[in-house]
Design a protein that fits this description.
single chain, alpha+beta, four-stranded antiparallel sheet, three-stranded antiparallel sheet, 7 helices, 7 strands
């Protein structure tokens, strides 16, 4: 007989003696089979109820975790919407010519010059060698951007200026409604943060189940039967078995 088999047998014997204390006869003799069966039945009944209740609690806890995650996602989306309403960033590219890049909310001339379109004014003057673009910010700051006539056709430069002016007009309308969008986004965020109805419903179900288990007459009866079975075993053997 292999060592592993001997180990398994030794563990099984030790476990049986632990579960049915009092000596070899009480743990193994057919004379006490009825007493062992009664104790085992009481244990199984309570264990089955414990497993069933654990399964129900686990399912509810999974639902609660899912509700929490959904709430966090909803709040995160509302926070992102508020951030975008407060600071929409540069936005997608609307057009470009050389170093000039017109985006939804900004005009960039290389990496060193990025200005918002709100209140922006542009002008163009034709020189012998360059198209001279003048960009005036809302606060009065002036920027000069020369565009070589050899590289850029006059029509293309004027088309870009027209695009910038149209984007400035659109930005004016956008900024005119920004305060309303921010207000609406803050309201949506507050609503998302306050909306815990799903979580509250699952928590209430968990608490209701816990109360039912505490006052369940069948649970109390099963505990009483196990207690009685353990007491009978102690009366028989002088040893109180585990639950």
């Amino acid at each position: 007989m292999g060592l592993r088999v001997l180990i398994v047998i030794a563990i099984s014997v030790g476990w049986r003696r632990y579960r049915y204390p009092g000596g070899w006869g009480f743990a193994f003799s057919p004379a006490y089979a009825a007493e062992r069966t009664g104790l085992a039945r009481a244990r199984r009944e309570l264990a089955w109820r414990a497993v069933r209740d654990w399964g129900r609690r686990t399912a509810l806890e999974v639902r609660l975790d899912s509700a929490r995650a959904a709430h966090l996602r909803s709040v995160a989306l509302a926070q992102a919407a508020l951030r975008e309403a407060e600071d929409p960033g540069s936005g997608p590219i609307e057009g470009e010519l050389g170093c000039l890049v017109v985006r939804r909310h900004t005009l960039a001339a290389g990496d060193d010059l990025i200005v918002p379109l709100g209140g922006l004014r542009v002008g163009i003057r034709e020189g012998s060698k360059s198209h001279h673009l003048t960009v005036v910010e809302a606060d009065g700051r002036i920027h000069h951007v020369p565009l070589s006539r050899e590289e850029y056709e006059e029509n293309a430069v004027h088309a870009l200026v027209a695009l910038i002016e149209n984007c400035v007009l659109r930005e004016k309308a956008f900024l005119g409604t920004q305060a309303d969008r921010i207000k609406a986004a803050r309201a949506r965020l507050a609503e998302a943060e306050a909306d815990t109805a799903h979580q509250d419903s699952v928590r209430a179900e968990i608490e209701r189940g816990a109360r039912q288990r505490r006052h369940d007459p069948e649970e109390a009866a099963a505990l009483a039967r196990l207690k009685a079975a353990r007491q009978r075993w102690q009366d028989l053997t002088g040893r109180l078995p585990t639950g």
